[in-house]
Design brief:
Layout: E1 7-10, E2 17-25, H1 29-35, E3 37-38, E4 51-56, E5 63-72, E6 83-90, H2 92-104, E7 108-109, H3 114-121, H4 127-138, H5 142-153, H6 155-179, H7 181-184, H8 189-218, E8 220-226, H9 232-240, E9 258-264, E10 267-273, H10 283-298, E11 301-307, H11 313-321, E12 329-334, E13 352-354, H12 363-374, H13 389-410, H14 415-433, H15 439-447
Helix pairs in contact: 4-5, 6-8, 6-14, 8-13, 13-14
The chain binds guanosine-5'-triphosphate (GTP) and magnesium ion (MG).
């Protein structure tokens, strides 16, 4: 892709429309556009003015359309280059003719996303904002529109920039100790540790916000996990307020995973009832148990249900230990109507709620415990939300680098070792805004765009 070419493309979607727009960008784009545009008067075109005239073939004189032309002089244009837009009647055939004409006179057809790529390369927007342009074009709901606009506004970019700058300050003082240790003495980790910790904390807040944002958009995935017959399906039905899942006194009733949606105080929840976990010779049940493990792995929250009246809590504890350690859990002691205080508990490490799926006792407390465990409070207005997987991965890598650097500092490692991890974190952050993105990453992002954008 040559950056000095004049590029042209139909900017409106394929198909007939009221109007159709053909856009040209590059050095000399406005002069090129003028060659196929006839208007009254001969004063030079002014930027950001709308001109009425005809589009014609300069070789044959044939008029193609009566149209509008809008010139945008560099740098005050979308791409930061000279840009001209023809607003024609929306005939796909006509628009193709105008495009061909422009190409005959020296432009070339633009690649997908090339206008926005040039805007990025010319510093009109950063990488995250360019992604927001694609989000805006694809937005299909109010929530998507809002998050695309927030990203486009540059809130996230500013926050990342702020963090990058702070990190760069730390890197500078660490590297000073590599180069000038004779003059300024040995690196004193104590002076740097608090600032590294503070950065880690801020990245963690961003990640939590990302999780909260996704949960509010898509619903929290909450998995009901436990031994057979403890009352998982009964609890599902109680929370939904309907007899959705089959409940029997036979252990191993639920085979397939059941997925249902409901809300707690407006928070969307996707709840999954699963097969009770136990060693089983039954093939169907085994498959169900496998699915239960998968559901546990993908869950935002695990409700670990146990039967207060059942003997041998060690079996429950063993199952609990085999669940993904990172996933938050609420332990749910069920069948309180058959049991008497003090109620049996499994471990003090996780919050426990005592309920009866049969009578409904304790369900309000359980709903509150679910909301608490999901930790949605961190979704503040003042911090930007990470909505792209790419951005989340970059922040995760930055955080990992900082944790590594923190460990090295605490272990009294030499400054060059610390600097490597700090640099890695800095580069990861830079990938979000594009400050440190390589060509391959940039190309991959812009390939996702449509032609004409
Ligand atoms: N007394 C009492 N019985 C309950 C309660 N919750 C469930 N049960 C009974 O316990 C038995 C098993 O309930 P289910 O909801 O099918 O249990 P499950 O955990 O889904 O079992 P599997 O699908 O086999 O893993 C049924 O007979 C229920 O009526 C409760 O709170 N109190
Ligand atoms: Mg069941």
């Amino acid at each position: 892709m040559n950056r000095s070419d004049i590029i042209a493309a139909i900017a409106t979607p394929p198909g007939e429309g009221g109007i159709g727009i053909v856009r040209v960008s590059g050095v000399g784009a406005i002069e090129l556009a003028e060659r196929l545009f006839q208007r009254r008067g001969c004063k030079p075109l002014q930027s950001h003015r709308v001109y009425f005239g005809t589009v014609h073939d300069p070789d044959t004189g044939r008029v193609l359309d009566r149209a509008l032309l809008i010139p945008f002089r560099a740098p005050h244009s979308y791409t930061g280059e000279d840009v001209a837009e023809f607003h024609c009647h929306g005939s796909p055939y006509l628009l193709r003719c105008v495009l061909e004409l422009l190409c005959r006179l020296g432009a070339r057809p633009a690649e997908p996303g090339e206008f926005t790529l040039r805007a990025f390369l010319n510093g009109k927007l950063d990488l995250a904002q360019a992604e927001a342009v694609a989000d805006l074009i694809r937005a299909r709901s109010d929530a998507q529109l809002r998050s695309a606009l927030a990203l486009h506004e540059g809130k996230l970019s500013q926050q990342i920039q702020h963090l990058s700058d702070a990190l760069l300050g730390i890197i500078a003082s660490v590297e000073a100790h590599i180069d000038f240790s004779e003059e300024i003495g040995e690196l004193e980790p104590q002076t740097l540790i608090p600032s590294v910790q503070s950065l880690i904390q801020q990245l963690e807040t961003l990640l939590q916000g990302a999780r909260a944002g996704r949960i509010l958009r898509e619903g929290a995935r909450v998995a009901l996990i436990g031994r057979p017959n403890v009352g998982k399906s009964s609890l599902l039905n109680a929370l939904l307020g309907e007899e959705r899942a089959i409940v029997t006194e036979v252990p191993g009733t639920t085979r397939d995973t059941i997925e249902e949606s409901f809300q707690i105080e407006g928070v969307p929840i996707v709840i999954l009832d699963t097969a009770g976990l136990r060693a089983s010779a039954d093939v169907v049940e085994q498959m169900g148990i496998e699915r239960a493990h998968r559901a546990a792995k993908q869950a935002d929250l695990i409700l670990f249900v146990y039967d207060l009246t059942a003997p041998d809590k060690e079996v429950d504890r063993e199952l609990l230990r085999r669940l993904p350690p990172e996933t938050p859990k609420v332990l749910v002691g069920n069948k309180a109507d058959l049991s008497r205080p003090p109620f049996a508990t499994l471990t003090a490490d996780e919050p426990t709620v005592i309920i009866s799926a049969l009578t409904g006792a304790g369900l309000d407390a359980l709903r509150q415990a679910i909301l608490n465990a999901l930790q949605l409070a961190c979704l503040g207005e003042e911090t930007a939300t990470l909505t792209h997987q790419r951005h989340i991965h970059a922040v995760q890598r930055a955080k990992a680098g900082l944790l590594q650097a923190l460990e090295s500092l605490q272990a009294g490692m030499p400054p060059d070792i610390v600097a490597i991890d700090l640099r890695g974190a800095w580069l990861a952050l830079g990938e979000i805004t594009g400050a440190s993105a390589d060509d391959e990453l940039v190309n991959r992002i812009f390939r996702e765009f449509c032609i004409g954008k």
